[in-house]
Amino acid sequence: LIQVFLPLNTLGFVFRETRDALLNAEQLFALLRQEVEIRDSPQARPLRLQDTTLRFERVDFSYEPQRQVVHELSLEIPHGQRFAVVGSSGSGKSTLARLLMRLYEPDAGRISIGGQGLPEVTLQSLRDAIGLVPQEPLLFNDSIAYNIAYGRPEASRAEVEAAARAAQADAFIQLLPEGYETVVGERGARLSGGERQRIAIARALLKNPPIMVLDEATSALDTRSERAIQAALDQAARQRTALIIAHRLSTVVDADQIVVMDRGRIVEQGGHATLLERGGLYAQLWTLQRQEEQAQTLARRLSQHP
Ligand code: ATP
């Protein structure tokens, strides 16, 4: 019997070890591929968390040899601040998050947390310190309670429910036929995109990490879901150092600083008002988003009152 179960347990163990770092299926594969190359150095120490200032210093990065996607990028997010990163699709926003998690190694430059270079700290402590809310969270075909408790399996039911409340997920969960015991379906198919993301936020809140990396969903949400997600994200970023890949105007406006990316470079950085005044790329993106939102609101009204 032991012989039969041992390999399965080992597999379960490996999966457990990697799962905390999951962003989505794509990144799981990246992680598995990278695991051969990215390892703890013999001198690696656990990350110290007194200061969680995130610093990128002249970072270059390419996924493939011929195509550089991050160019000499420098960025500092001070301890406890919330930074929003905006920019067109493909400008390199998610890549920053992946580099911070050390799913990939920069080709040049340095990334550090509180002065500790990522290669100097253990991968486990690094990934324990960062809560990730991906755009397309990976949910398991198991109960909602299991999916939330996933980052901290020993959490009590009361803790799971508190996290769900903070993530604005409790109300919709209560309405499901079996509440927290409802099985979410393959990849969470029984939930909407906004609901899946709130489950992911609850999961991250339960883990209670000092650093949060949030990738907002781009998909159109109705106004009520959008408000709920916004409140949940606020909760997740509160009193933490946060990097938010932002798609919504409200998130951007509330951030301590806005970082505007274009083709792998930071082209503008500052507060909302300053950037608007500047009349550069941020001002353009903002106008474009406003028009899109207005068009969506109009489309919604028309579909409600044809
Ligand atoms: P979006 O807003 O669409 O999510 P983004 O700003 O987050 O875009 P990234 O996902 O960081 O952009 O991608 C930056 C560039 O790197 C893009 O040109 C993309 O095609 C490329 N890229 C991303 N992932 C990989 C990969 N695994 N292998 C090769 N190229 C990749």
TrEMBL record:
Residues 54-288 form the ABC transporter domain. It is found in: Cell membrane. Signal peptide: none annotated. Coiled coil: none annotated. This is ATP-binding cassette domain-containing protein. The lineage of its organism: Bacteria, Pseudomonadati, Pseudomonadota, Betaproteobacteria, Burkholderiales.
